[in-house]
Request: fold
Amino acid sequence: MNTTKMIKSALISVFDKNGLEPIVKELHKNEVVIYSTGGTETFIKKLGIPVVPVEDVTSYPSILGGRVKTLHPKVFGGILNRQDNPQDVEQMTEFDIPQIDLVIVDLYPFEKTVASGASEADIIEKIDIGGISLIRAAAKNFKDTVIVASVNEYDTFLDMIQENQGATTIEQRRYLATKAFNTSSHYDSAIFNYFNEEETTLKISVDNGIALRYGENPHQKGQFFGDFDALFKKLNGKELSYNNLLDVDAAVSLMNEFKGEKPTFAILKHNNACGVAQRESMKEAYLDALAGDPTSAFGGVLIANGKIDLQTAEEINKLFCEVVIAPSYDREAIEVLKEKKNRIILVINEINMPQKQVRTCLNGILVQDKDNITDTKEHLTNVTILNPSNEEIDDLLFASKICKHTKSNTIVLAKNKQLCASGTGQTSRVDALRQAIEKANSFNFALDGAVMASDAFFPFPDCVEIADNAGIKSVIQPGGSIKDELSINYCNENNMAMVFTGTRHFKH
Reply:
C-alpha cells in the first residue's frame, strides 16, 4: 500500500498570515486547488493566485458575524473521508463533496488576548470554534489528510512539500498530527484555565520546552518548560543547567522581597542565600553580602535589586560565579562581567509570575498557592515586656524575608541589614540555630545586638536561651505553640525582645 500521497486540494483559514505566502505559492506551483475563507481568501487573491471561496462549496455564506464559516458537512466530509473505504468514496460522490488533502489553520490568539487585559467580551470572541474543529478532524484522519495547525509549523511543512514535490509520507502526516493535537490540547487548556475557579482540577500545558544538558545529575535527563526569554534577556554565558535554573528561581523569589528598596544584593548556593546585605550603594551591598560567606559564594548565583554599576562589576569579577542577575547594568559593567566567557549575565524583566507552585509527589502532583505574605511592621505583635527598637525591627523584617526563602528547618541571624549566617534544612531547629551561630563565628561576625528569625514557632525555650548566650537580643517568629509562654518567659527574664508574626514560612 502506497502511504505517500500527493496534495491536490487544500483548505486554508488562518489568523496569522506571516510565512503563509511561500506555502501558497508552492501549492499553486503544484496545481493544488485552494479553498479559503474571509481574510485568508482575500490575502491569497492579492497574491494573484486562484482561490475557491468555501461558500461556493457549502452554498452557505459566512454567518453570525463570522462565527460560522467552515462548519458544514461538505467541508468536514472532505477532510474526514477515508479514501480506502468504499462506502466513504461512494458518499463523497453522492453528496458532491470535494476531497480536501491539506488543512492549514492558525487559531485565534486566545492567550495573547487574555494577557493583553482585554474585556471578557473580546476574550470570548477569541475562542476559536471552526479552526479547532478543522484541526481535530484533519489530525484524526492523518492517514489521508495533512494538518498544519500553527504558524510554528509553516517552515517544516514547506520543507516537506518542496523535498517531496508536493507529496507527504505517512510518517510526516502523523508527525504533523501530533503537533496539531498538541496545539489543540494546549488551546483548550488555556481556555479552561481562564474560566476555572475551582481547586479540584489541574490542567497544565506548556508548549515551549527545551532540553537541558542533563538534570540534577549527569545521569538524569532534564527539560525546562517555560518562557525563559520572557523573564530574562541573556547577555552572556553558557546555557543554563537544571541546577542553575533552580538557583535562579530561588534568587528571583528572594529578591522580589526587596523590590523598590535600597540597594540590596544576595548570593545564593543550592537554593539558599549564603549572603545578603542592604546598603546605600550596590558596591557596598555586594561586598557585605560576600562577607556573609565568601567560601560558599564560590560558584554561586548573584542577584541585585537595582542597576549593577562598573565599581560593583569590578568587585564581582574577582569572584568565580555562575550567574549574575540584575534589572539593569551600566554598559561598562557588562563589558567587565563578560571577561569570563562562561559567566551567565541576565537582565530580569517585569512580568507576572505564576501564583501556583507545582511539584510531583508519590504517584500524583501537589499544588499550592505561592507564599505571597511578606512580614511587615503591621504584622508584628510584641509579646515581651521589652519591645524591639526601630533599628531592631528593620533587622527583624530583613531576617524574616531571608528566612522565608531558606530551606526548613531554618534560623537566620542578621545585624545591620546584613545576613550573618543561617542554619538551613536541619531536622532540629536547635541544630539549625547552632549551625548558624557556628557559621557566623567562623566568619568573625559579632552577634552582640544581632537578631534571630525562625520560620516556625519554638516549642521549647531552648532556642531563645542559646541565642541569648550568643548575644542575640531580639527575635521574630510566627508563634502558635501551646508552649509559647516558655519562650516568652525566658525572654522577659533575660531582657530579650520577641515579636510574633502569626505567619509560618516553611519551605520544604
